[in-house]
């Protein structure tokens, strides 16, 4: 059915909540703000940072850029490594590779950070391509990341591409880019939001995804 597997990263391959939450708190503290709502903190994971700071905290363009810079200051300082690979994901990547799938990371996290994190867990060499956001904001949304992935892969047939992701941002980005999306519920989204936004299938475990793909 598919030949290309596009992987979301945060909430799909890695549980990145500890480092993201700490960096988010660091950025807000610069503006004298706090966020005690843990559910709201979890919602930071998925959309681009500029969207979160700009829309959720009513920051203007200058404040938003400063908030993103403060976040990255802390995240790049070591918090990016406060994460872990979800159980079963590395084995799934290996099985899909053996089955002949091309596998690509497609994430709104800056690309240089992605490579550092994946390198820590020995996953860089397991991917055919790693595509993330650009620091200048030129490539920022999930759809923009997906379009960049298509460009690097030589514009494959989009009916042969599927994205695995955990939030509505993945489903919406996939739809806008003209590809299917498989939702997983062990990350930061919910079954309800994934289904409401149009995921082709929603599964509880990565093993179910692999079985569905026939690998």
What does this structure look like?
By secondary structure, the protein is α/β, with parallel strands linked by helices. It folds into 2 domains: 140 residues, 3-Layer(aba) Sandwich (Rossmann fold), CATH 3.40.50; 65 residues, Orthogonal Bundle (DNA polymerase, domain 1), CATH 1.10.150. It is 45% helix and 16% strand. It is built from 10 helices and 8 strands. It has a 6-stranded parallel β-sheet, sandwiched between helices. The chain has a two-stranded antiparallel ribbon with strand order 2-3. Helix 6 links the parallel strand 4 and strand 5. Helix 3 crosses helix 4 and helix 7 crosses helix 8. The longest helix is centred in the N-terminal third of the chain and has 16 residues. The radius of gyration is 16 Å and the shape is globular.
Instruction: Please give the domain count.
Output: 2
CATH architecture of the largest domain: 3-Layer(aba) Sandwich
Share of helix among residues? 40-55%
- Computed over alpha carbons, the radius of gyration is 16 Å
Average pLDDT for all residues: 94
Query: Numbering strands along the chain, what is their spatial order in the largest sheet?
Result: 5-4-1-6-7-8
Q: State the distance separating the first and last CA atoms.
A: 11 Å
Q: What is CATH's topology name of the largest domain?
A: Rossmann fold
Q: How does the helix and strand content classify structurally? A: alpha/beta
Strand content: 15-25%
Secondary-structure element sequence?
EEHHHHEHEHEHEHEHEH
Uncertain spans: none
| Largest β-sheet summary | 6 strands, parallel
The total count of strands amounts to: 8
Outline: globular
Number of DSSP helical runs: 10
- The CATH homologous superfamily of the largest domain is called HAD superfamily/HAD-like
At the first level of CATH, the class of the largest domain is Alpha Beta
């Amino acid at each position: 059915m598919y030949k290309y597997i596009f992987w979301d990263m945060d909430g799909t391959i890695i549980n990145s909540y500890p480092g993201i939450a700490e960096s988010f708190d660091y950025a807000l503290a610069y503006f004298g703000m706090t966020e005690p709502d843990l559910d709201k903190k979890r919602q930071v994971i998925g959309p681009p940072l500029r969207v979160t700071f700009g829309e959720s905290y009513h920051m203007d363009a200058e404040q938003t850029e400063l908030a993103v810079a403060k976040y990255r200051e802390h995240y790049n300082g070591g918090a990016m490594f406060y994460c872990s690979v979800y159980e079963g994901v590395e084995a799934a990547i290996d099985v899909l590779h053996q089955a002949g799938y091309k596998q690509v990371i497609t994430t709104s996290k800056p690309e240089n950070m992605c490579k550092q994190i994946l390198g820590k867990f020995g996953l860089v060499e397991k991917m055919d391509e790693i595509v993330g956001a650009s620091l200048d904001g030129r490539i920022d949304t999930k759809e923009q990341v997906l379009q960049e992935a298509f460009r690097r892969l030589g514009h494959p047939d989009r009916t042969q591409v599927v994205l695995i992701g955990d939030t509505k941002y993945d489903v919406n980005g996939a739809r806008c880019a003209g590809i299917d999306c498989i939702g997983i519920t062990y990350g930061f989204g919910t079954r309800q939001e994934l289904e409401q936004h149009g995921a082709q299938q929603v599964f509880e475990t990565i093993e179910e995804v692999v079985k569905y793909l026939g690998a």
